[in-house]
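Extended Data, panel c. Modelled sequence:
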Amino acid sequence: MNLYDDFIEWVERNNLDSIIPTAPSLLDELTMLDLSKHRLQELPDSIEVLSNLTVLKIAGNKLTKLPDTIGKLKNLRNIQCNNNLLTEIPESIGELESLIVVNFSGNKLSALPKSFYNLSHLTRLNLATNCLKSLDEDMKKLTKLIYISLDTNYLKELPDCFGDMESLYFLELSYNQLTTLPDSLSEVEELETLILEGNNFKNLKALEVHDMLVRLNLNENGLTELDFDISKLEDLQILSLDSNELTTLPDSLCELENLKELSLTSNELSALPDCIGNLENLEELDLEDNELATLPESFSNLKNLKKLFIADNNSVTVPDMPWLEFCDKG
């Protein structure tokens, strides 16, 4: 049986003939294939017949492995293999030199093959919700990455690999076991979104260089204070510090004149900085589940505030702010 016959037999056996053409000439022309959520348990070795495929979507199946022949799809630029049961990726993945977008989130990967770091054209990489314990130093070769998601793994440290990722703007590291950021991250000048939720970060002074950050999430890090000069993050618009152990906030927070959303839920705050009213562009403020009894006089200067969440505090009284669109009143 030749490769085309084998592939066509697999198509028919899995009732996919309404999605995939069964004429060899049409298979040669196929550039995009979406087999998401079809309960597939395996892909055939003969998938290599799809020589012109550029986009492969196989998310939401029951795949435990990929065939080695996946490496022969030389034109593949985008692979969406999220939410499967993969425990490993074949070494042949490194032969897919045209890959730009890779999504292997929601699998059971504990490591990446060495060849993975040869994918030098990658711009978007999603490895969230796996079992990764480490990444290789060769990740530094993926210099074109602009988007990285590594949340919900078992990473205790990251390789010092970010120095040449000049265009990286989004980095998601939530729910790992990280305590520090690699020094090379300070060289990424374009970083706009940094999500560090659910780790145990200490000594965050390295964040001060990221003056182009627009969104910073430090939820659930056991923080008792902000040990860096947050005013350096002059472009910051969204700041989330929920579920920490903060008892006070630094006055430098009030210098974030571009801040639009500030979330401080579930801390131990008994007071806000007197200068809080300086945050004149603030539109949403979440203070739920703290120990606030009063608000500073300057609070009524928050003329652009639209949403205020202040329940579960110490009977705090909200000043008259008729411009509020929503307030839970405590």
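The domain at 246-330 is CATH 3.80.10.10 (Leucine-rich repeat, LRR (right-handed beta-alpha superhelix)). This feature is highlighted in the accompanying rendering.
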